[in-house]
Design brief:
Layout lengths: L1 E5 L10 H12 L8 E5 H7 L3 E3 L7 H10 L3 H10 L2 E6 L2 E6 L2 E4 L12 E3 L5 H16 L4 E9 L6 E9 L5 E2 L15 E2 L1 H13 L8 E5 L23 H6 L4 E2 L5 H11 L11 E7 L4 E5 L12 H10 L6 E8 L9 H8 L6 E6 L4 E5 H4 L12
Parallel strand pairs: 2-8, 16-17
Antiparallel strand pairs: 1-12, 2-12, 3-7, 4-5, 5-6, 8-9, 10-11, 13-18, 14-15, 14-16, 17-18
Helix pairs in contact: 1-5, 3-4
Bound molecules: tetrahydrodeoxyuridine.
EC number: 3.5.4.5
GO molecular function: coenzyme F420-0:L-glutamate ligase activity
Keywords: GTP-binding, Hydrolase, Ligase, Magnesium, Manganese, Metal-binding, Nucleotide-binding, Potassium, Zinc
C-alpha cells in the first residue's frame, strides 16, 4: 500500500475543494490510478462549505449558559454544540460528549483546530454528499474509478492520542464483515467486522498530521479494500448505545430511541385510552414485552385516596407476572406529555426486580422517544441478593 499526501493552498470558506485537491495533485505531479482511495479531512470539507463561525456573532441561550458553566466552556461554543448535536451525554471540564445521528462526537464535532482565532469550524453539513461530490469531480478529471472517505480524528476511551475515523464514504465499503473467516486456530470469527474506512483514515493521518502541514487529502494506492458497486449502501453502520460496550457499560442512558420497538410503543399508546385518571387527568399507557414475545399492556388506575394510585408501568408488570411471565425484554411507556414520560421511582424498583437489562422506551404521543435500560434508570437499586443468599 502506498500513500501520497496532497499539499494544497490554505482552504478558505467558499473554496471549491475538489478543484483545490486537483491543483495540489497537479503541482506535485500526482495522478489517480484505478481503485485509489482518497481520504479528505473533515475540517477542509467544513471550511470549504463555509462552516467557519465567528463566535462573536453567536448569542448563547439559557441552556447553553448553564451547560457552559457546568463544563467550563465558552457559552457561545456551547450554543453551537447544542444546535449541532442530538444529545449531550455528559462531559468533563472543557469538553462535552455528544451524540449526533447515532455517533459519538466530542463537542458536537465542533473544532477549534484549523480555525482562525475567535472562530470555530462546524461539523460538515453532509459529509456523505461531500464525499460523493469530490469523487464525481475527481473521477471526471482522471477517468479512473476511485473511493472517497471524509475522515476525522478521535481518541479512544482511556487512550491518549488520536486515531482516524471515517465520517462518510463514497465508492468504498466502510465496514467489511469478516465473520465466517477462520482465526489462526481454525475457529470461525464470530463478531469480527473490519472498520476498513476508519483504518484507512488512520493511515492517511500518519501522512496528514494534525496541524499546519497543509495536507487536507491523501491518496491511498493498493489498499486491499472493496470498492462499492453502484447503488450499494455505503452508510457507516452504527450500533445502539445500549448495545455498545463502552456506552452500555457506563450506563449513561437514556439515549434517543432509534427504532426496534415501534409495535410496543403503539400498544402502549392504545392503552392510554383505557386510563382511569379522573383526579390528575394525566393518562399513561404502558406495554411490557415478555421474552416469549407476548405483550401485556395497561394504563394508570387512580383512586380517591391518591396514594393508592397505580402507575401504568406497574399495572402492566402486575398483569404479566400474574399471567405467569417472569422474563421481560422491554417496556414502553407513553403519555400525552411535553417530554417523553419517565417512570416513577416505585415503577423503576418494580422493573429491576425482573432484570437490570430490560429496555425502557419512554415516549410521548408527539413522537419523541428515548431508550434506557432499567438499571440505568435505577442504578444500585435494591435487589433480593442484598438480603437473601
Ligand atoms: N403515572 C404513570 O402511570 N406512570 C408514570 O411513569 C408517571 C405517573 C401516573 C400516576 C398517576 O395516575 C398520574 O400519572 C399522575 O401522577
Amino acid at each position: 500500500m502506498e500513500l501520497f499526501g496532497i499539499k494544497t493552498d490554505l482552504v478558505r470558506p467558499g473554496d471549491d475543494l475538489a478543484e483545490a485537491i486537483l491543483r495540489g495533485m497537479e503541482r506535485a505531479g500526482l495522478r489517480l490510478a484505478e481503485g485509489d482511495v482518497l481520504v479528505v479531512a473533515e475540517s477542509a470539507v467544513a471550511t470549504a462549505e463555509g462552516g467557519v463561525v465567528d463566535l462573536s456573532h453567536v448569542t448563547p441561550g439559557d441552556r447553553a449558559c448553564e451547560l457552559a458553566e457546568r463544563y467550563d466552556k465558552d457559552a457561545r461554543e456551547m450554543e453551537l454544540i447544542i444546535r449541532s448535536s442530538d444529545r449531550i451525554i455528559g462531559g468533563i471540564p472543557g469538553v462535552v460528549l455528544t451524540i449526533k445521528d447515532g455517533f459519538l462526537y466530542p463537542n458536537g464535532g465542533i473544532d477549534h483546530s484549523n480555525a482562525p482565532p475567535g472562530h470555530v469550524v462546524l461539523f460538515p453539513r453532509d459529509p456523505g454528499r461531500s464525499a460523493a461530490e469530490v469523487r464525481k469531480r475527481l473521477e471526471e478529471a482522471s477517468g479512473k474509478r476511485i473511493g472517497v472517505i471524509v475522515g476525522d480524528s478521535r481518541t479512544h476511551p482511556l487512550r491518549l492520542g488520536c486515531v482516524g475515523v471515517a465520517l462518510a464514504c463514497d465508492g468504498v465499503v466502510p465496514v467489511e464483515d469478516a465473520r465466517g473467516q477462520r482465526d489462526l486456530f481454525g475457529r470461525p470469527l464470530l463478531i469480527t467486522r473490519k472498520a476498513v474506512a476508519d483504518n484507512l483514515v488512520s493511515a492517511a493521518e500518519v501522512v496528514m498530521g494534525e496541524g499546519d502541514e497543509g495536507i487536507p487529502a491523501v491518496i491511498i494506492r493498493g489498499a486491499p479494500v472493496r470498492l462499492a458497486d453502484d447503488g450499494e449502501d455505503m452508510k457507516i453502520p452504527n450500533i445502539p448505545p445500549e448495545e455498545c460496550m463502552y456506552i452500555g457499560s457506563l450506563r449513561c442512558g437514556p439515549h434517543p430511541y432509534q427504532g426496534g420497538y415501534d409495535r410496543l410503543i403503539e400498544e402502549a399508546t392504545e392503552a392510554i385510552e383505557r386510563a382511569y385518571a379522573p383526579y390528575s387527568g394525566f393518562r399513561v399507557g404502558a406495554a411490557l414485552l415478555a421474552r416469549g414475545g407476548k405483550i401485556y399492556s395497561a394504563a394508570n388506575v387512580e383512586n380517591a385516596s391518591s396514594g393508592a394510585a397505580i402507575c401504568a408501568e406497574r399495572a402492566a408488570i402486575a398483569k404479566a407476572v400474574s399471567e405467569g411471565e417472569r422474563e421481560f425484554e422491554a417496556l414502553a411507556v407513553v403519555a400525552d406529555s411535553q417530554e417523553p414520560v419517565s417512570p416513577c421511582g416505585i415503577c423503576r424498583q418494580n422493573l429491576i426486580e425482573f432484570g437490570d437489562d430490560i429496555k425502557v422506551i419512554m415516549a410521548n404521543t408527539r413522537g419523541d422517544a428515548e431508550i434506557a435500560t432499567a438499571g440505568e434508570l435505577l442504578p444500585r437499586g435494591f435487589k433480593r441478593d442484598h438480603f437473601m443468599d
